[in-house]
From TrEMBL:
Species of origin: Corallococcus llansteffanensis
SMART domains, A to Z: AAA
InterPro entries: AAA+_ATPase, ABC_transporter-like_ATP-bd, ABC_transporter-like_CS, P-loop_NTPase
The family this protein is said to belong to: Belongs to the ABC transporter superfamily.
Lineage: Bacteria, Pseudomonadati, Myxococcota, Myxococcia, Myxococcales
Name of the protein in its database record: ABC transporter ATP-binding protein
Amino acid sequence: MRKTYHRAFGRGGHEALKGMDLLVPAGSAFGLIGPNGAGKTTFIKSVLGIVRPTAGTVRVLGGSPEDPAIRARIGYLPERLHLPGTWKAPAFLATVARLKGLKPDAPALLRLLERVGLSDAVDRKIGGYSKGMRQRLGLAAALLGDPALLVLDEPTDGIDPMGRLEVRRILQEEVRRGVTLFLNSHLLAETERVCDRVAILADGRVLREGRLEELARGGARWRVRFAPGAEASALLAAGFVPTEAEARISTATTPGPQPSPQADGAREGVYLVEATDVAVLNAALDRARASGALLVDLRREGADLEAVLLGAVGSSPGVAA
Ligand SMILES: Nc1ncnc2c1ncn2[C@@H]1O[C@H](COP(=O)(O)OP(=O)(O)OP(=O)(O)O)[C@@H](O)[C@H]1O
């Protein structure tokens, strides 16, 4: 798909999408990431039928994004929300429901407001809402009518960490019940936590696309906690790096001290180990256990999306990160 924004009177234009080819599997939680001006919003608008491609086609939920029946199955949270300041949330949601062709059901609307954490604010005017509250109301509006596809542009923008947790929980619930989630967020940690697939867009083209684990270079990292008393030098020899020392290694630009067994991570018993697959991981754990170390906790480290993004954008000719 291509999209060129034409200037007035046909004098040239700007090619925002330069041959973008993307398949978002039904039921996936899909994240779109990329630098400013990459074309993310243009792509979202084309999925919603707001922008028409200059060349190519967009198919959404098996149909055209311009088909009202298809649009009715899409929930959309825009990046810039325009909300009526003098209204209260239930009246706003009732109007959105009517615009979506739904019959407003007052108790259901209150349940929805409770779900997004706004039950205490139903009697307040929207104009007095904080940015996070406005985002939650926008999310409630997007969820009206149980859409099959949720398109969210910066859904957690302005929301505090507790609120983000709540929003994430709602999005995960939606994905579990079969909804396809399409998320555009500058918060890479948010994308990592919510999405199972990611596409990197830069300068109007998809640079990389795939499952998060596949995109992460260098295999998976594991965070391991050993019981007190584990022999730090033996763990180092087995490939386990104390977390504090690991931070120093990755940020050091000049030769510095080698990781010492007395590093904070070692004192806490927390280590990181690189393992391309579970066989490699288990071999490392076997070496650790042979030294007498006892495993207390083991968890996979999230794929480092920032590194993947910077790597993809940095290695693409003509694209500035
Ligand atoms: N209506 C428009 N007319 C002309 N050019 C536009 C229009 N909308 C977007 N563009 C240009 O198209 C390019 C892609 O813009 P778009 O908003 O899709 O990027 P984005 O990835 O969403 O950026 P950001 O992360 O900054 O929101 C940019 O260079 C932008 O200036």
